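User: Okay, second chain of the day. Same drill as before: sequence in, structure tokens out.
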Amino acid sequence: MFSIAHFTGGIAQTNGYLFSQGDTHFVFDAPEGMAHWLEVQKVKVSALFLTHQHFDHVMDAAKIQTQHGCPTLAFAAYSQDLTLEKLYGMFTGTHLSIPPFSVDQVLTGKTEVTVDELRWELLHIPGHSPDSICFYRPEDGIVFGGDVLFLDGIGRTDFPGGGLQQLLQGIQTKLLTLPDTTRILPGHGPSTTVGRERQQNPMLDEF
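Assistant: Same drill. Structure tokens below.
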């Protein structure tokens, strides 16, 4: 039996999730404040999964790595181009510095990954960010989706490497084909289901 707890923090109110099954604890994304929240939970993290590397999702990645000694898995190697920290500084006139972290397992080209005997299907859906990846566990009917699909919305596509049609095509072919009851745990806002978004999401009317 598994459980999911979530933390929301940082300037973009970004969700981070703690997935627990037995003595195994996985973290999905690392918004600012997540490392301290994990201390309060008093768990030892087995792995950190990143849905993409935009700054608001990785602010505490280095802290979590240091505190837990856990591997980090992401679609691509660590990149300041993917974190958007320089772009953020250009547009806001403020300095944003993300502590560098390592990606111990690059998932490019893979369709699944197994960590501590738990298998996750990998759904690469670019359009919001080139490295956006969703982690799907069919046995539990859950998807950690990052900024791909939201309740009544989709990820913004005006960042470098973004593309609206690319994102919509990925959602149509890789998420909307999942069972209606599949729970989507997004990077921002409340959770939803595939069936609910297929039927009611105004951004997906054509599907």
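The chain has a mean pLDDT of 95.

User: Thanks, on to the next one.
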